[in-house]
Each structure stands twice: as C-alpha cells, then as structure tokens.
Amino acid sequence: MIRYFTAGESHGPALSAIVEGLPSGITITPEDINTELARRQQGYGRGGRMKIETDKAVVLSGIRFGKTIGSPVALQIENRDWKNWTEKMAQFEKPNEDIPAISIPRPGHADLTGMIKYGFEDIRPVIERASARETAARVAACSLAKTFLRSVGIQIGSYVSSIGPAGETASSSRLESLLAEGAEALTKEADTSPVRMLEKTDEENAVAAIDKAKEEGDTLGGIIELFITGVPMGLGSYVQHDRRLDAELAAALISIQAVKGVEIGTAFDNARNPGSQVHDELFPGAAHGPSRKTNRAGGLEGSMTNGSVIHLRAAMKPIATLMSPLHSFDITSMEAHLSHIERSDTCAVPACSVIAEAVVAPVIANALLKKTGGDHLAEILERLEEYRAEIAAKFKQ
C-alpha cells in the first residue's frame, strides 16, 4: 500500500517527503510533480510568500530512467526564504542576538494548543509546522499517486464553487460535459480562472470579495468541488469501519489545514429530503453496469464505489492570520492583546482545491491496489482490465 510522510518547517532549509509502496513501472516526469506544485502556488488572494518561492521538487531516490522502481521515492523542495531565517530557525546553536519569542496566539490557529501540548515558551515552532506551507510536500508526494491513477484511466479534478459570498452558479450541464471527457478536463478549465471558478460572473464577484477582504485586513474561505472519474465499481468495503472508502476520503480532505467540513455527493441536501428524492434509481442496459440518472450519493454507496463519478465537497474556513487582528492575550503576562500577525494570504481556496486533488489520490490508489494487487504497473493494468470485463459481462443484455 502507498503511504507517505512529510518533514520540514515553513522557514526551514527545505520540505521533504518519502513515498513508499508505489508499484514499479510508472512513468514519472519532473513535470508530473512540478506542474502540481506550480498550480498550488497560484490563485488570486495569495500572499507575499508566493512571490519568494518557486517550488520545484528534487527526486533523491525511487525513480530510474523515468520510471518508479518499487523502492521509496524521496523528494525535497528547497525553501528559498530560508536564507532570511537562518538565525531565527537555527537547528543547533542559538544565535548570540536576541530572538524575540512569540507569545500571543492567533484565534483559530494551532498556536495556543500546540504551545501548551508540546511545552514551548515560544509559538514559533508551532507556526512553522502547523503552517499550510507543509502542503507543498504533500502535493509533491501525492502527485506520484495521481500520475499512477492517470496511467490506469482514473482522473482527479476540481473547481471552486464559492469564495466567501460569491459563487454557486456553475451550470450543471457544463459540468457534466466536462466530466464526460474526464475529471482533468474540468481541472484544465478551472485553471484558466484566477480563482478556479467556472462562471465569469462568479469569478468577478469572488475577486471583488477578495479585494474587499484584503482592504479590510480580513480573510475569506470557500467551498471546493472535487471529482474522480474512471473509477470501477467495488473499490472500498463495508465489512469494517477502517476499510470504508468514504471515511478514508473524508479523513484525507479534513487533514488539510483550514478544511473543516467534507460532504459526499449532496449529503446535506439529502438529509433534508425524503428517501424518494435522495436515492439514485437504477436502470439496466449500461455498458459497464447499471445506469443512474442522478448521482446524489456522490459515487459511493455502502462505502464502496458504485461506478458513478465520485463527487466530494470540502469547506475551507478563512485563514486564521488577519491583518486587522482579533482579540487575544499574551500567554507570558496574561494581559489582553491583539493577536499575532504572521505573513499570510487573504484567500487560499484555489490553492486548497489543488491540495484536495492531491490528498485523495493515494486513497483511491490504495483502494485500487487492494482490489487488484500487483507490484508493477503492467500486472495491475492486466488485472484491472479483467475486472472491468467481468463487470461488463455481468450486466450484458
């Protein structure tokens, strides 16, 4: 099974990741990784850090002649801003000059609880690792699983449906047309917008809302729509709680910094409607299984893929660092104080949608590997083709 770990601080020398369990024989190019890293850095509303960093991954192991070799892949992403933090983030000897401690936590951030949990007298170590800068390493690591899935006909795509008060008017027919080409057609279309929205009016309203929030020293969150196409029926399982695919997908998304809600299909609308208006009716005659005229279940029934497009939604809260800071207190003096200000974004929802695409890739890849087995790509492709043929044969009229 594929698993990955990341390491590194926001202003340390570098971020790194180790990816274990990738089958051998997957063709990987530098662009497969670096294009995803570049996409993560885009989006209207990003802060000054994106003007400093130009993220590119250096591959240290696990790939030979452009193909995975079955051993762990090690990746490193240089932090160009490290040169300005060598004393504040020195790993060993403390510099002679006084480094002021940060003792005023930001509401909504890991600052206060992290400081107490790990016994720090300075919030800086919490800021460094809790920072969403860590997601650059995750995007690099997960891009390998995303490339693997693409090689077996499974695509992951996304767009932003709302930012703050703006959005939610994307045409369902246009969305269906894009998804019919594969989820990456949706991604390609969304990437032409600075806020990754599909409708020009939504884009203009979102840009205006971000400008207003920036002027007021505020921040904005939003909602991400994520789709996975080409997934066969029967991935995942209902037999144990820790094998439920919907739970694994939700966990992957909720692990992203500032994501506080996940929805599968139209789950919250479903909760308000009777079953007759919720469950996706089945019709015979489709080439690769029964057809459905709706997809309210989001492609998952009984915690397994049902052959429909997987549809997930993620809610990202506004970023916790405000240029017009909220009320807080100094933990050393216990006196009231406005919260600490750290360089940050006004809105990072477009970037979060790219991260969301990344983190679900290993989940789907592992569900596929559990079904097919196999240590190299050719073996997996053969078994997957056989499985898809078996499904088609069962429903052949």
TrEMBL record:
Residues 273-300 are annotated as: Disordered. Its cofactor is FMNH2. It catalyses: 5-O-(1-carboxyvinyl)-3-phosphoshikimate = chorismate + phosphate. CDD domains: Chorismate_synthase. Pathway: Metabolic intermediate biosynthesis; chorismate biosynthesis; chorismate from D-erythrose 4-phosphate and phosphoenolpyruvate: step 7/7. InterPro entries: Chorismate_synth, Chorismate_synth_AroC_sf, Chorismate_synthase_CS. Its EC number is 4.2.3.5. Gene3D superfamilies: Chorismate synthase AroC. GO terms for molecular function: chorismate synthase activity; FMN binding. The keyword Lyase applies. NADP(+) binds at R40, R46. GO terms for biological process: amino acid biosynthetic process; aromatic amino acid family biosynthetic process; chorismate biosynthetic process. FMN binds at R129, A130, S131, Q257, A258, G302, K317, P318, I319, A320, T321, R343. One of its GO terms (cellular component) is cytosol. Reduced FMN (FMNH(2)). Keywords: Amino-acid biosynthesis, Aromatic amino acid biosynthesis, FAD, Flavoprotein, FMN, Lyase, NADP. It is an enzyme of class 4 (lyase). Pfam families: Chorismate_synt. Homotetramer. This reaction introduces a second double bond into the aromatic ring system. Belongs to the chorismate synthase family. This is Chorismate synthase. It comes from Prosthecochloris marina. The gene is aroC.
